[in-house]
Amino acid sequence: MDNLYRDFILEHYRDPHNKGVLDPHDLHFADSNPTCGDEMSMTLLLDGEKQRVADVAFDGRGCAISQASASILTDELRGMTLDELRALDPKEVIENLGVPIGPARLKCALLSYKVLQGAVIGAEARWPDEADVLAGGSAP
Amino acid sequence: MVIEQQRADVFDGAALRADFPVFDRPHRSGKPLAFLDSAASAPKPRAVIDALSDAYGHHYANVHRGIYELSEDATARFEGARAAVARFIGAPSEREVVFVRNATEAINLVAYSWGRTNIRAGDLILSTEMEHHANLVPWQQLATETGATLEYVAITDDGRLDLDDLRRRLAREPKLLAINHVSNALGTINPVAEITQLAHDAGALVLLDAAQSVPHMPVSATELGIDFLALSGHKMLGPSGIGALWGRRALLEAMPPFMTGGSMISKVTLAGTTWAEVPLKFEAGTPAIAEAAGLAAAIGYLEGIGMAKVRAHERFLFERAWAALSDIGGVRLLGPASPDEHAAVISLVIDGIHPHDVATIFDGHGVAVRAGHHCAQPVMARYDLPATTRASFYVYNDLDDIERLTDAIHATQRLFGTA
């Protein structure tokens, strides 16, 4: 299990990228991980045509996995279109994290994805089906 | 830590592990399992597993129905389990023991049946800030539906019930005080006899959530003076899917059924139905027959050790664990420090490391703990914590488990660079 806590994960945890709240912003959403109650919010600023992400920030406190996942995910978002954000595959989010995620920690790893989907789709965004995400994934 | 000579009133937890097949299961860490999550649910001894198998294999038929030997046998065993529960919790009569799925269902039964009959708009219901969601959400629902007011007795910074706040709120004559005996999130043992006296003097009934106390210490409903008691079988070495509600007979007899259907009737016509007598009035449908046999076997196992010895053993482990954990820098412990007021359930915070990370890293060392809000989110909010790591002890734990726990904390702090 210790291979979950590789140095780069701990570095993102101690010094997360894109941490904070953007003001002003175009999109905002907050949600919590039902298994632990950790809360995360995300703010996005769009470009002039309101089509692409100009800037993004996340906020909240949580475990190393949720914080590193948010840090790594938000690094990828600038320049992406809203349609591309909506089409993000949660499996890719897990793969980009680069460490083995099992069922017990899947929601930690996907909290930032869930909050992002809430920001671009709305409150009706749902958690992805865990079996789908873990199938063929990098579960230990 | 050096393993000390066992005290006379403390038994060898490691030796008892031979009774629990789960400890034979290889762990992915390659290390023996240090199981410190009994407050969530306890492993089962062979005696309970065998009782389940024996009930299904040799004594199984529906209960309270058949006019044949096998059904009579099954019914006698089922009612024998009810008598075992009554004896174990000091109930005056087994006819006051209702089998349910778990403590949550027991509390819901009271909230729906007693609550919706006796609670009116403007009435006051008291709960506390330290409750498991099971003893909180049903009362919120009752208050919402009836227009009653629900208030929570405060807890102190060191996790004890604020008895001054309790007295102030009791002065406003609540109808009910719903309180836990032992907090699953803090480990606090409430002075229930004293609290019940205060509540009764104010005219309030007392419902005791005893899910965390009945498995771990002698509990007598009669001596405590309470009116309702809820317990779960799975936390006391018994099967999941069975628990019990105890209530004073007069209260149970005055309450309408919770769920209706088969088994719980006296006579049904198309025009209407009359109810069976207590407790069958509250047991609609075929009950958990084999699970009742398993619960009786769990009670037999615990009685074989002796509940006073179980309590002494856990008190010893609590004292040693509290001392060892208090010595570790960057570790904060929740709840009262006195072993008189604290069961062997220790909620802790490791500075700078989230409990979910703690539990994952502990798992890599073969140490199973609970991380999260423990179904007690208001407790977490009270101490401004997102979650805690919780280590809870039972009969099969020993000083080795405390050493495994402290070693795992040191390893976690080294990994995160906070040591």
Write the layout of secondary structure elements.
The complex is a heterodimer of chains A (140) and B (419).
Chain A: H1 7-14, E1 27-32, E2 39-46, E3 53-60, H2 64-75, H3 82-86, H4 90-97, H5 106-120, H6 130-134
Antiparallel strand pairs in A: 1-2, 2-3
Helix pairs in contact in A: 1-2, 2-4, 2-5, 4-5
Chain B: H1 13-16, E1 34-35, H2 46-58, H3 69-88, E2 97-100, H4 103-118, E3 124-128, H5 137-146, E4 149-153, H6 163-170, E5 176-180, H7 192-201, E6 205-209, H8 221-224, E7 228-232, E8 243-247, H9 249-254, E9 265-269, E10 272-275, H10 289-305, H11 307-326, E11 331-333, E12 345-350, H12 355-364, E13 367-368, E14 370-372, H13 377-382, E15 388-392, H14 399-416
Parallel strand pairs in B: 1-13, 3-4, 3-5, 5-6, 6-7
Antiparallel strand pairs in B: 2-8, 7-8, 9-10, 11-12, 12-15, 14-15
Helix pairs in contact in B: 2-10, 3-10, 4-5, 11-14
Q: What is the count of helical runs of chain B?
A: 14
User: How many distinct beta strands of chain A?
Assistant: 3
What spatial form of chain A do the alpha-carbon principal axes imply?
A: globular
Cα-atom radius of gyration of chain B: 22 Å
Work out the number of β strands of chain B.
Answer: 15
Per DSSP, what share of the residues of chain B sits in E-state strands of 2 or more residues? 15-25%
Q: What is the second-level CATH architecture of the largest domain in chain B? A: 3-Layer(aba) Sandwich
Q: Roughly what is the average pLDDT of chain B, rounded to an integer?
A: 96
Share of helical residues of chain A: 25-40%
Largest sheet descriptor of chain A: 3 strands, antiparallel
What count of structural domains of chain B? 2
- State the end-to-end CA separation of chain A: 9 Å
Helix content of chain B: 25-40%
- How would you sum up the major sheet of chain B? 7 strands, mixed
The secondary structure category of chain A is alpha+beta
Record the strand order, biggest sheet of chain A. 1-2-3
Give the count of helical stretches of chain A: 6
**CATH class division of chain A:** Alpha Beta
Distance between the ends of chain B? 18 Å
Rg of chain A: 14 Å
